[in-house]
Amino acid sequence: MEDFPRTILAFEERFSTEDACREYLAAVRWPDGFRCPDCGHGKAWLTTRKLYHCAHCGHQTSVTAGTVFQDTRKPLRLWFRAMWYVTSQKQGISALGLQRVLGLGSYHTAWAWLHKLRRAMVRPGRDRLEGIVEADETYIGGSGGGVPGRGAVKKHLVLIAVEVDGRAIGRIRMRRAADASADSLCGALADAVETGSVIRTDGWSAYGSLQHRGYVHQVTRPMDVAVEAELPRVHQVASLLKRWLLGTHQGAVQPGHLDYYLDEFTFRFNRRKSASRGKLFYRLVQQALQVDPAPEKLLRATAPD
To answer: Does residue 143 register a pLDDT over 60?
Structure first.
């Protein structure tokens, strides 16, 4: 059963102590009761160091081990406030904004936390899109010279797939593509869309192999004709993505971190109709417990935004 606070007052009252936060993580991580990660046994006792000691094999583990929160030196109460704030802001938040709200002494701490939470916004084993899907690419990044269109340089190619929901937009998936080749584009679509679905694209030749991958491929228009009217949903999503990157992050997205921003936009967009911010908080907590830890030095492999 999904259990989450509905209001900021309920949130503050419920998660006012470290023990309350730890108990909530345990309930979300092990909804059917504790299971030892080594032997799978279901009985354990809690030590004075807040470790679960398996009654069968003696292995000790914490509720945060193997999760986004592993090895954190900050209170879980602060992490919870960060997750509540991130999910309660419809347009997202910058690292500087999070630093100010939480009173963090370091900008880099806020930056690392946001990237860790963005990694958790992709649910492991999530369902693929199905039915009728529009697909096209867009370029993210500063202006660059060279060959126009799909040959642009100094920009980053992003493949966008959008479910058709009547006249509306359904779920979306995004992925940065190495190039506009068939291997890159069709391979990404194969990961994002169920076989047997209808995929609508423009006339770019790289999409021609979709039919050999188990999809019904519909070409909307030849390459020399504008496709905005033929692929309206995917072009609307591309426009919203660029506006969001520019408005929330001033367009300052480093190439090595673009995937994290795409994950955040997808998480927010696919839950845009949710009436409860508390449910988004619950989903983020749930997924943060399923994602492997990411050391800060790994996140800093490229320059921060």
So the answer is: no
10 vs 276: CA distance, rounded Å = 13
Most distant CA atoms of the chain, gap in Å: 69
Tell me the pLDDT tens digit for each residue of 30-39: 999 999 989 9
Burial bucket for residue 36 (CB in 10 Å: 0-12, 13-18, 19+): buried
**Token pair listed for 45:** 């006792």
Number of alpha carbons in the 13 Å side-chain half-sphere of residue 240: 19
pLDDT digits (tens, 9 = 90+) for 156-168: 899 999 999 999 9
In a domain, 176, yes or no: yes
DSSP letter string, 11-35? HHHHTSSHHHHHHHHHHHH-TT---
In whole angstroms, what is the distance from residue 246 CA to residue 289 CA?
30
Nearest residue to 245 via CA among 258, 234, 235:
258
Say how many domains are in the chain. Answer: 1
DSSP 206-226: GGGGGGGGT-EEEE-S-TTS-
Residue 90 lies in a domain: no
Is the residue at 107 inside a domain? Answer: no
Going 255 to 162 to 131 to 185, the CA torsion angle's sign is: negative
For tokens 């102590």, the residue is 17
- Does the pLDDT of residue 260 top 50, yes or no? yes
Question: Does residue 155 form part of some domain?
Answer: yes
Based on the number of CB atoms within 10 Å of its own CB, is 295 exposed (0-12), middle (13-18) or buried (19 or more)? exposed
What is the Cα–Cα distance from 92 to 126, expressed in whole angstroms? 22
Range of the domain at 230: 132-244
Angle, vertex CA 169, rays to CA 197 and CA 192, nearest 5: 40
Q: What is the helix, strand, coil percentage profile of the chain, to 5?
A: 40, 15, 45
Cβ proximity of 132 and 162 under 8 Å: no
